[in-house]
Write a structure and sequence with these properties.
The protein is mainly alpha-helical. Helix content is 71%, strand content 0%. The longest helix is centred in the C-terminal third of the chain and has 32 residues. Keywords: Membrane, Transmembrane, Transmembrane helix.
């Protein structure tokens, strides 16, 4: 059995069990990667629709930021960093075949490289727009496939309890990726206020509301079983207080930044919103996966 930090990714490779617990470092890499996929998702959509007119540098900056967010996990796995040696359940070593979700994640880098090479001018060339469509599609499929593989290793009752998890992960990607995109655009000085900005901020606020409802539904479905490590009365109270902090960081801080500094193009507001949301989602994901590991250990497979 692998150590506890490799849950749930190592489950897909058959190297761990659902009772293993995640660590904060592994959860952080997962949250960063989800935001990176969301950033690529929005960038690919903007290229497909012909909305990305910031030129080559305006495309490469968010593309590179997404590469840093997504690429941190495989780089640390290749460097054999203790506690982070697996990536999507795959040990990147000679003799170890990549898992299905790892292959999909690797394939996502192909349209990333294509967009990096084709970005030019107003990005209206049809091949650039096609590369953007592929980038959007791969960025959507990769987290969905990883979530499906994780859920497939759970018992039937827990699979039903996590039925909202795929939709939740995609909403997280779109929400956090949108905040990172907002930050990258402001950092380049390419912010253009007006109706488009209002619609963008309204979309992010709507995603925040939808994500809050999905996460509440996930916790309600899980019902946190009574286990010695996290299901008792004291454990539930402590978990509730930590979830409240996670909600403040994930929703209250970014939404306040959007409402107060969004239309004004405040770089400080964006610099607070995106990292704050990452911290909130880190705490939320760690708490949920710990509770899910407790439930998996308490219920028969």
């Amino acid at each position: 059995m692998q150590s506890t930090h490799e849950w749930p990714g190592a489950i897909a490779a058959g190297t761990a069990t659902p009772t293993d617990r995640p660590t904060r470092a592994a959860a952080l890499l997962q949250v960063l990667a989800t935001g990176g996929y969301g950033l690529w998702l929005w960038l690919g959509l903007s290229l497909l629709l012909g909305l990305s007119r910031l030129g080559r540098s305006g495309t490469l900056v968010p593309l590179g930021l997404g590469a840093v967010l997504v690429g941190a996990g495989p780089v640390l796995a290749c460097l054999r960093v203790p506690g982070l040696a697996t990536w999507h359940g795959w040990l990147p070593r000679p003799g170890h075949r990549p898992t299905r979700s790892a292959l999909m994640a690797l394939a996502t880098w192909l349209p990333v490289l294509a967009v990096a090479g084709l970005a030019h001018g107003n990005n209206s060339f049809w091949v650039t727009r096609l590369a953007g469509a592929l980038l959007m599609l791969c960025s959507l499929v990769s987290p969905l496939l990883a979530t499906h593989d994780d859920r497939a290793c759970l018992s039937a009752p827990l699979q039903r309890a996590t039925a909202l998890l795929p939709a939740c992960r995609i909403t997280i990607a779109a929400y956090t990726g949108g905040l990172w995109l907002w930050l990258s655009v402001l950092a380049q000085g390419g912010f253009d206020g007006g109706r488009a900005a209002y619609l963008w901020f309204l979309l992010l606020l709507t995603l925040a509301l939808g994500l809050g409802l999905l996460e509440s539904g996930l916790w309600q479905s899980l019902r946190e079983p009574d286990t010695p490590t996290g299901g008792g009365v004291a454990g539930k109270r402590n978990r509730f207080s930590l979830r409240f902090v996670a909600a403040l960081l994930s929703y209250a801080l970014p939404c306040a930044a959007l409402l107060l500094g969004g239309t004004a193009g405040s770089l400080l507001a964006a610099a607070l919103a995106a990292p704050g949301c990452v911290l909130g989602q880190l705490l939320e994901r760690y708490l949920y996966e710990t509770a899910l590991a407790d439930a998996a250990g308490a219920k028969p497979a």
